[in-house]
Design a protein that fits this description.
Layout (H helix, E strand, L loop, with lengths): L12 H6 L35 E3 L8 H17 L2 E5 L5 H15 L3 H5 L10 E3 L14 E8 L16 H26 L6 H6 L5 E9 L11 E4 L5 E5 L7 E5 L2 E4 L7 E5 L1 H6 L9 E3 L7 E9 L5 E2 L17 E2 H11 L5 H4 L6
Parallel strand pairs: 1-2
Antiparallel strand pairs: 2-10, 3-4, 4-5, 5-12, 6-11, 7-10, 7-12, 8-9, 8-11, 13-14
Length: 361
């Protein structure tokens, strides 16, 4: 098998969901230890109170230094204690967020022949897909997705973006432009909180020559949600992830110690999480955190994951300012291209990917 082929014929999960079967195929049944404890999937104010931090960015760039310090402190604590947080008053128009989500929902409800025209391969993953990893016989996740490149511009190809609905390409372009801007603001905050110059992490990513891509996840209704996952436990391989969640249906779960916490999205918030590349650059001061997605039998979900990544051919290693005799470098240099190939071959594997990179001590 070449890296350009899937090991088995692709089955669209949406087709399985719409078939009316009351049982999921064995290919989607997780081992008992990996099965989810299902929450009440509708967003409900009376649900359990624990949640990832929600941070208001309104005073981040204003003249009130006390307000700015407070926000920096909240983000620092969230990065170190959770690896995840939500941001509101982030500067991205709410109408654009809603339009982006709705355009993608319409795409996934397009006729199958429209979607199949964008079918992807494991060589680049660009386009319409239904599996991650190329291991033959692997247990699969209950989801379909669409993956596309936004940066660098040499990889940005409108012809690989959906032409249906008619506004989709224009909306995607506007949306990704805004998220590049927001990601840059957050990168400065992460640098400042590490005690290094505000442009240090950005420069380590390649300055303006960063990578950025979008994966839109579609989680169809599942007749046996207690047996499977929409996305298996993993940490994100890239730098920073900004997730626009479904505005009505929960599903994202974040590992906190030995527990899985179901994230309750704030209205028009982005969910931000640290990826493996930031863990490496920060010499594990910040850690990427395992997360997964539960599905349910009553409702489909759509979410948009925007990945802000290093330039693919730059060796990524702990920044020199954070390496001392007391805190030696934990990771050898590795380009994001090399790391991504490693991940794509194996599929989601909890935190084992980044942990396996650590230098022998």
């Amino acid at each position: 098998m070449s890296c350009q082929d899937w090991p088995e014929p692709i089955v669209r999960v949406q087709s399985l969901s719409e078939s009316g079967s009351t049982d999921i195929p064995d290919r989607y049944v997780k081992p008992p230890a990996e099965r989810p404890v299902l929450p009440n999937s509708r967003i409900n104010g009376d649900d359990e109170k624990i949640n990832i931090p929600i941070i208001n960015l309104a005073g981040l760039d204003g003249g009130d230094e006390n307000a700015r310090r407070e926000i920096l402190g909240q983000i620092s604590a969230a990065c170190r204690e959770w690896g995840f947080f939500q941001v509101v008053n982030h500067g991205v128009r709410h109408e654009l967020m809603d339009d982006a989500r709705e355009n993608w929902r319409q795409f996934f409800h397009s006729p199958m022949e429209v979607k199949q025209a964008y079918g992807n391969s494991p060589k680049t993953y660009e386009g319409y897909g239904s599996r991650l990893g190329v291991e033959k016989g692997a247990i699969l996740d209950w989801s379909d997705y669409y993956f596309l490149h936004y940066r660098p511009s040499s990889l940005k190809d409108f012809n690989k973006w959906p032409a249906t609905p008619a506004s989709c390409r224009e909306v995607i372009d506007k949306y990704c432009k805004e998220l590049v801007r927001l990601s840059g603001r957050l990168m400065k905050v992460l640098s400042i909180n590490l005690g290094i110059s505000e442009d240090r992490l950005q420069n380590a990513f390649g300055g303006d020559n960063i990578g950025a891509c979008l994966r839109v996840n579609f989680y169809p209704k599942c007749p046996q949600p207690d047996l499977t996952l929409g996305l298996s436990s993993h940490s994100d391989p890239g730098g920073l992830t900004l997730l626009l969640p479904d505005h009505q249906v929960t599903g994202l779960q974040v590992r906190k110690g030995d527990n899985w916490i179901t994230v309750k999205p704030a209205k028009h918030a982005f969910i931000v999480n640290i990826g493996d590349q930031i863990q490496v650059l920060s010499n594990a001061n910040y850690k990427s955190v395992e997360h997964r997605v539960a599905v349910n039998s009553a409702n489909e979900r759509v979410s948009l994951a925007f990945f802000y990544n290093p330039k693919s051919d730059i060796p990524i290693e702990p920044v020199k300012e954070l390496v001392t005799e007391e805190s030696p470098s934990l990771y050898p240099p590795m380009t994001f291209d090399e790391y991504r190939l490693f991940i794509r071959t194996r599929g989601p594997k909890g935190k084992s990917q980044v942990e396996s990179m650590k230098s022998p001590r």
